[in-house]
Amino acid sequence: MGSRPFVTALAVICAATLLFLSCSKRRGPSATEAPEKSWVLVWADEFEGAEINTDNWVYDLGSLWNGWGNNELQYYTSRTVNAYIEDGSLVIQALEEDTYPGFDYTSARMKTQGKVFFKYGKVEARIKLPYGQGIWPAFWSMGVSGNWPACGEIDIMEMIGGGSNRDNRYHGTVHWDDSGHKMSGSHGTIPWPAKLADNYHIYGIEWDQSEIRWYFDGEQYFSAAITSAVQSELHQEFFLLLNVAVGGDWPGSPDATTVFPQRMHVDWVRWYQWK
After folding, report:
1. Is 9 within a domain?
2. The whole model's pTM is what?
3. Is residue 263 part of a domain?
4. On the CB side of 109, how many CA atoms lie within 13 Å of its CA?
5. How would DSSP label each residue in 10-68?
6. How many domains does the structure of the chain reveal?
7. What is the band of 19 on the pLDDT scale with cuts at 50, 70, 90?
8. Catalytic residue among 153, 211, 233, 237
9. How far apart are CA 258 and CA 262, in angstroms?
10. 147: containing domain
11. Is residue 153 annotated as part of the catalytic site, yes or no?
12. Which terminus of the chain is less hemmed in, N or C, by CB atoms within 10 Å?
């Protein structure tokens, strides 16, 4: 009878100890439970320097064949009037001029080919787009091996300028070879009269062994399976491209409504992979 308070107190202490140990064990995964995957940044360009980082980027130059295969009207240069750093962003500027004989427009097309390339992951860029009839900005990627379309192409973002349902519409597409060019894609819009040129937005993909998923400001709007045997080119290392084209088969030519210069502002580009 006289020892009951001590026994009761001892029982309370033991119960509290067991509860603490039980809670502590619940804080982490069990020995057989795999830790949750997370994205790890493996490469980025924040465009914080005074000049474009040539460890990351090289330039496509000229008009190649048939306007880069699309009847585009611009001549791509490496001049600082066409590509430069301003206020912590990369600016690619399309100009109307007659600097190069036979071409009324100049612009820039930059790529990480031979510099930066990865297989799979999450790729994003924060971009403020240009606008207007005949203006064709893109953030995209190509495989390091093979001739197009057998190298594979992933268009993370394209925009075809020219008013309602164009200046407010973004596109995502994947291309591959299956005894000829094959493609799959979709698009999304922001409410008109807002334009994608009004503000920065984040354009991205998540790419793994089974599919590619496209995102706009963190919201998924399309996915494409890439498990077919004929899509092997989509399972190699890819490099990135940024450019502003003028004219071409898809957007058509500039007209009297098109304002120059047109600029694409890129705040940052980032590539993540699974930890």
Report:
1. no
2. 0.87
3. yes
4. 20
5. HHHHHHHHHHHHHHHHHTS--TTSPPPP-EEEEEEE---SSS--TTT-EEE-B-TTTII
6. 1
7. very low
8. 153
9. 9
10. 37-274
11. yes
12. N
